[in-house]
Amino acid sequence: MNDFKVKVKDLSLRYGTNSALKNISMDIPEKKVTAFIGPSGCGKSTFLRTLNRMNDLIDNVTIDGEVYIDNINIYDKNIDVVNLRKKVGMIFQKSNPFAKSVYDNIAFGPRINGISQKSRLDEIVEFSLKQAAIWDEVKDRLFNSALSLSGGQQQRICIARTLAVNPEIILMDEPASALDPISTGKIEELIHELKKQYTIIIVTHNMQQAARTSDFTAFFYMGDLVEMNRTEVIFSNPGKKQTEDYISGRFG
Amino acid sequence: MIKDLVRLKSKGQNTAKEIVSFNNKKFRFSDWFAEKVIKAVAFLSIAIVILIFIFVFREAFPIFKMDKKEAVSTELLVQESYGGAETGSASVKTTDNQVDNSNKIQATDEKPSSTLLSKTWMPVSDNPRYGMWPLFLGTLKVTLIALLFAAPVSILAAIYTSMFAKPRIREIIKPVIELLAGFPSVVIGFFALMVMATVFQNIFGYASRLNGFVGGIAMGLAAIPIIYTLTEDALTAVPRTFTEASLGLGASRRQTAFYVVLPAAVPGIFAAVVLGIGRIFGETMIALMATGNAAMISMNPFDSVRTLSATIGAEMAEVVFGDTHYNVLFLIGSLLFIFTFALNALAEFYFKNMIIRRYQSKK
Amino acid sequence: MNRNVKDTIVEGITGVSVLLIIFIIVSILAVTIVGGWPNLNWTFLSEFPKDGMTKGGIFPAIVGTAMMTIIMAVAAVPFGVITAIYLAEYASEKSVIAKTIRFAVKTLAVVPSIIFGLFGLGFFIGFIGKNMDGLLNGGELKWGQPNILWASFTMALLTLPVVIVSVEEAIRTIPREMREASLALGATKWQTIRRVVLPGSVSGILTGTILAVSRGAGEVAPILFTGAAYFLSDLPRSLSDQFMSLGYHIYIMSTQSSNVDATLPIQFATTLVLLLLTFSLNAVAVTLRYRIRKRAK
Ligand SMILES: Nc1ncnc2c1ncn2[C@@H]1O[C@H](COP(=O)(O)OP(=O)(O)OP(=O)(O)O)[C@@H](O)[C@H]1O
Ligand SMILES: [Mg+2]
């Protein structure tokens, strides 16, 4: 039980009066890839964003229940959300590098943590870019604008940027949905590498992607967690009819 | 590559991996301080409005407490004024006119506040009179002329821009008309003084070159960009579904514009006109330069007029700090302020609510 | 009447209104250019007025306008930017405080400029200045009279809404994704503002500043009795000196000079200079703003 990195208990969320998540409970294991699947609008992104309290930014959101990360309830009054987000990084569906150079993008996190020594920043930038498997592609363009890179490269810059903060958990919201198959392949490879060190949670619409990359899969439907299990089990022998319908594509 | 990574990894880790704990809220001074400063500064806008209220009213207030008019030496005032100030043709006329009036009224020991509603504005004399009546009338007259000119022209132009013009033409018209907003009012005033006054005099053949009509049209020019832009916004804000439904039923663009779009945009257009009135009402430089500045009671649009704001502009620099005349000018300022404040509040709350309600009910 | 005829007539009338406005704009430009161009030369720009203002140039008025608008911008821009940050980043739309601040900003934008002049006189000169004299100068008159500092401050109040509106608009075009990216990296709100929002709003801040300067350079009513002077034989040397300004110069020369006809060329040329100044500033601002809006789409 204690090797679960994230434990969610009875989590409900409403946007105004609109219920988007209903009594979700789940445990997410450490240093594994967990995939969230489900039809559009079922609350995958919403749920993902509760894990680093990104929903705090939206007006009118009510959240009940508990989310434990390393056995600390992140919805406690005393939680330092800023530090929480350093520990729980996030990659967005649309790559969102800053309109700065590649170098400044990666150095953003270390800098806000007070690292200003050039040699250390260089080191972290190189290390993070290598970790994100994009160093070779950008090492000669470190001081060009990140926006001049291709979409796939931008997304890996965003991953490198997150890695530079040294998170323990990385949340990815459809990180490859806007990319071509080759870039998608690179991201999937990268996820495979990263799970040796990080707990990864990924939202995806692509069944094959979930099957290829994840160890565990959770199926959401209309704000409910329908079922969660080892990925092989979900894809070969799902426990619920709804899940089966969805993964076999018989479903909206 | 792998070796490289391993080397870097160990380095990277022992450099950047400080244990971040999130179970206790951290106090971050810079964030706390920034927020406090930002909030405090943002309050400044409110504070300024309140201060304007207080200080403009404060200087006006003594007028109601004074029991006797102060004897202010006229010569002193004349000496203090600028070299040529009293020799302008308009000013001379003003003085003549006032002398005429003052002969009929013989009051010497009145409270200054009791002359406020009289019919003579003659602040600089042995027996100063502060009748604001001609100023009110003049302001009203000029505002009316300006509005009668500016409102139809700008509303029609806005209708053309949003309803009839092709997109490419619209892209040209809008910025060009908005250029007018960038003309300093002293430039418009100068144009009115130099060109419009002469042209209009040739057309209409009236006596005094500078008068309420010239001033009104010139002040209308200053209001045109405001009314035009806001009306155009109001028209484009009408949901496209309205227009499409109407055009789809076979109505022409003209019919759609006048029977569908225009009625839906009425509150917005009212707000535009109201703000235009505010602009005209408070306009000082054009009034000073183009209206002739004689404080008389007349209904003729081609007579010279003196507006409230022009009175402040013309006389404040020559007045003795703290005397009755000074207070009366501040009183005029207070009235101007209250009036534009009310207009703004009206446009802001009343018309805006009307706009919101209209679209909601039709949704 | 035939429907098509009606359509044509109505479209014609509205179109004529547009043409009328454009005609007026062109006339003002043409008259100013034709009247002012012959006298516009380097001597005119670089000399002091001579012979009782009937000859010479407008150098001190140009310098005075520049100095006044610079001091004004230094006062107005920081306050405007911070207020815009508050409205865009800190205030929730529904909060009463935010609504009140917004209303106050709008009020400042519509208060007649002459009222700012009165306020400057009553507050800066009559209250702050007089009290400064009482405390610092032992009652000797120095700050309690019109000067360039009080005129600039008065103008700053008038142009504050211009800055606020431009900067807020620019801040709001910064995509939410950028803020989220920063916050998700563990940046605090202030770090996000300082490192992501403000750098992204530089062009908006610039636009606001330029528009404010352009507005301040053209306004005359607020400085009529807070610091502008008819003629000075010297440039302002300290903040407690009076100054000459282009707009005030036009006003005085065209209405109150003892020999209006002799100074006519000077009046036109001065108007042309002021118009060129405000126009070129506006053109830059409009271009910048256009770019910001395009980015927002
Ligand atoms: N900011 C918001 N305000 C109000 N409602 C929202 C907001 N964000 C999401 N919702 C609603 O919450 C529900 C869940 O949305 P969410 O984005 O989590 O779905 P999703 O599973 O990620 O969908 P997709 O696969 O399309 O990304 C939807 O009904 C959506 O309309
Ligand atoms: Mg989603």
Order of helices and strands of chain B: HHHHEEHHHHHHHHH
* The CATH fourth-level homologous superfamily of the largest domain in chain B: MetI-like
Q: What is the helix tally of chain C?
A: 11
Helix content of chain C: over 70%
Q: Please report the total strand number of chain B as a whole number.
A: 2
Structural class of chain C: mainly alpha
Name the poorly predicted regions of chain B.
1-17, 68-109
| Strand order, largest beta sheet of chain B | 1-2
| Average pLDDT taken over every residue of chain B | 79
Oligomer: heterotrimer
The gyration radius over C-alpha positions of chain B equals: 29 Å
Number of domains of chain B: 3
Strand content of chain B: under 5%
In short:
The complex is a heterotrimer of chains A (252), B (363) and C (297). Chain B is mostly helical and 363 residues long. Helices cover 69% and strands 1% of the residues of chain B.
Layout of secondary structure:
The complex is a heterotrimer of chains A (252), B (363) and C (297).
Chain A: E1 4-15, E2 18-29, E3 33-37, H1 44-50, E4 61-69, E5 72-73, H2 81-87, E6 88-91, H3 102-112, H4 118-131, H5 135-138, H6 151-163, E7 169-173, H7 181-194, E8 199-203, H8 207-213, E9 216-221, E10 224-230, H9 231-236, H10 241-247
Parallel strand pairs in A: 3-8, 3-9, 6-7, 7-8
Antiparallel strand pairs in A: 1-2, 1-4, 4-5, 9-10
Helix pairs in contact in A: 3-4, 3-6, 4-6, 6-7
Chain B: H1 2-16, H2 29-60, H3 74-80, H4 89-104, E1 121-122, E2 129-130, H5 133-164, H6 167-179, H7 185-204, H8 212-237, H9 240-248, H10 253-282, H11 285-290, H12 308-315, H13 324-361
Antiparallel strand pairs in B: 1-2
Chain C: H1 3-36, H2 42-46, E1 49-50, E2 55-56, H3 59-90, H4 96-110, H5 113-136, H6 148-172, H7 176-184, H8 189-200, H9 202-218, H10 246-255, H11 264-296
Antiparallel strand pairs in C: 1-2
Helix pairs in contact in C: 1-11, 3-6, 3-9, 4-6, 5-6, 6-9, 7-8, 9-11, 10-11
